[in-house]
# Entry
Amino acid sequence: MKQEKILEVKDLKQHFDAGKKGVIKAVDGISFDIYRGETFGLVGESGCGKSTTGRTIIRLYNATNGEVIFNGKDVHSAKSKKDLKAFNRQMQMIFQDPYASLNPRMTVKDIIAEGMDIHGLAKNDQEKTARVHELLETVGLNKQHASRYPHEFSGGQRQRIGIARALAVDPEFIIADEPISALDVSIQAQVVNLLKELQQERGLTYLFIAHDLSMVKYISDRIAVMYAGRIVELAESDELYNNPLHSYTKSLLSAIPVPDPEFERNRERVLFDHSSYNPEGSELREVKAGHWVLCTEEEMKQYQV
Amino acid sequence: MDKATEKYSKEKFQRVHVREELSEELTRPQLSFWKDAWLRLSKNKGAIGGLIVILLIVALALVGPLMNDYKMDEANYDAAYLPPKVPGLGWLGLDGMQTYEVQGTTVDDAVQRGITGYEIEEQYVLNTEVVEEPNESNDNYYKVAMEVDIYAAKGLDDTYYWFGTDNMGRDLWTRIWKGTQISLLIGVLAALIDMVIGVLYGGISGYYGGRTDNIMQRIIEVLSGIPNLVIVILMIMLLDPGLTAIIIALSITGWIGMARIVRGQVMKLKGQEFVLAARTLGANDKRILMKHLIPNVLSVIIINTMFTIPSAIFFESFLSFIGLGLVPPDASLGTLIDTAFDDYRVYPYMLVFPAVIISLLMIGFNILADGMRDALDPKMRR
Amino acid sequence: MDPILDVKNLNVTFDTYGGKVQAVRGVNFSLKKGETLAIVGESGSGKSVTTKALMGLIKKPAGKIPEGEILFDGKDLAKLDNKQMQKIRGKDLSMIFQDPMTSLNPTMKIGKQIMEGLILHQKLSKQQAKERALELLNLVGIPYPEKRMNQYPHQFSGGMRQRVVIAIALACNPKVLIADEPTTALDVTIQAQIIELMKDIQKKMDTSIIFITHDLGVVANVADRVAVMYAGKIVEIGTVDDVFYNPKHPYTWGLLGSLPTVDSNEEKLMAIPGTPPDLIHPPKGDAFAARNEFALAIDFEEEPPMFKVSDTHSAATWLLHENAPDIEPPATVKKRMAGISVEGERQS
# Structure
């Protein structure tokens, strides 16, 4: 079954000018497709460019090079206000820091309704209030919370308000930028469960950005591993987990602490030599069906053995 | 034993169904940011004290001049240099008595010299007291304090000047409160102008960043490199001396501090995730500025403005004191102090009242602003 | 063997403008020589405050220790004043903080920062201190220590900085090392390195470690014993095997169940509903009752005492009372309890 592509990223580059130090290549030529209705995980350690990738896709940054094709249209060449507004409704984002992602001077109602105000989705205040209440219920909060201010909520509750805000404009595609990394363990599960439920109910597509591989493995259908601005490996999540090929993926997987003392006692870490990493001449090649690795022609043959 | 079993009876170990909504309830009362800040401020005794002092002074500045029939520029040379006299408050020292210090070879000689020197009839001298016996350092003169009922001496028995009069016989009560009015007006206007220019300049510079910011910041650097006093003196020489000149002079560089603070805040805020969230929702620049940035910078703006007011008042007084301020008969606290300074050894009351008022204003505003900073400081809340 | 540190009925409160926060409400535990005790809990559970109390870092006058004893070396640390505490802090008790960026002085060379404590507490000469500092940098695995001594913190990466912090903490051979989320700010691969380093050092120096974290994976790796904290109390304490393979408290079940296992792709995670209680007004009875799907009527009336499960293991839940109904832990947790095989498959 060939699935429909909702998003195609082609050779995306995002370089920042860092003055005398030269150019920082935060994202250095990455390509991937995301299919409608799936969850695509993007993992990597801090500074690997995963968040920049997400922000560039949603146009918070203008790409240095490359194309982002969403629903068949290149979003980075869209210029008319109408096109951009339509794009803003279809693609939404959930942010990392539950304390910084809500405006402290706005009530929960105003925060959630912001998208409706901008796009004129509610005819009157009554309709808007009703919709906000409905959204609050969807994310597991009470109607009474609408008139409160963000500082009165806990991290998990705030994150759910952030999700409600994104949902208010009925998007098809949501970029979740480390949505759980600032939350407590028990609260992480609440948010992940909520995201999964919403996906089933509304047929959402997620780009799930995180550094916690175990949670990404749980929520994602396919996972891409990023290192130094490039994707080093991309595969279905079980395949990636059980059969990692790139040495960086292996080291990353072997470093995840597992909540099982017996397993931890017998753990052996795979070390990755950062200084020997040289992507020159390498490109993302399909080693097996659906399993891509950043490698040279020769390395590919080795992987395939 | 029985008790223990009773206490832990089987019924108590029934399972209970937990309602999920219940655990999401917020137990603390609902508070908006400003209500919360006010609660915090009202618990700060110092700040409330400062606020009361300011309100009292403002009220007196408005009502004070209407409380008697004297006008602020009504000169009466017969009534010059009268000390404060308030009916019923004589025990506080506000009894219209003037003490002169006179010298002479004997006590009587000193008093006689005083009587001729100050042109008073002898019957009004109520009291004399030797302050210093003759000795080497004062050329063997007696130094005598001579208390005179100066109101009676000038034939003004039934007249009361609550804060006394100045060298031209103008009522100081009226002049001081009028002067306070002017000082407050200068402080508030200068602070408001600083605020408007500073917020706009800093906001634009911070929000647009890049080249715009670069150019705007260089301009600020050049401006702040020129000594303040030089600009002020130039401005006052250029414009006609008076209220407008002083306010313009104060504002011409005063906004720089505000602009810098606002720029820093805006730069910090515009990268925050809630601003990014608004942008992904399609919000335009105007919406982001009005709904997201300015409300969040507001507390800093208010705090900074609160600190600007007293420093503007003080700067105006300083200018008046060095002779660059208002031109008489207009009065501000600064010009009053300037006039009083000439004779403050003989007529200290002329200096005391405006000096106390300006000090109270400075302390009041600073304590209040400090309290507001604590109350509004976003770092203290989570 | 006698414990090196014994905490009895520790209470810590903070006065805030909203009211008095009862951050720690009667915590008991002891620490033996050479062991690692992990304290796990969510933010606001009182785990960090507990260790701050141990270090005498509760800020007065807002923070108070109204009750409780911290017995260390025959002294009750809770009663010492700041000056007496300063002699112990950094010498017998040392602490590693979460953020290596902020726990180093950015304007001071690394070497000097390490030597400072040595000169202050151990009265070493400058030359001796320098030699010892080099030794320590070697110990924590910093390459080219002679060169690194003369560098500033900003010239170090996050992981290297945390190594320096550890070197400083170890400088005076402390008897107890308190690590407050030492790896949370680091990437997983760096985290693994730092944990390995700490275990290695512990073996060499026989230090006792209190390791605060919210990451159960890290706990499983480092801990000999585990204390689970919730709303200012220890709700379950035992050896690492007790807590992971035979958990008794529903909150521990919730924590374990909220983590995905390798083959749990299709199942829902066992999230704990709601949010932790407000410790300005701690609820009556068991603080966890409102979020506990296995709550009993008595949970809302009376706080459960610590029930002994075995010599090493106890938990504060009424489910362990003889009158309580038999309640099985949820399925996902059961699978985890038998977990060895589940996780083992991955590597093969």
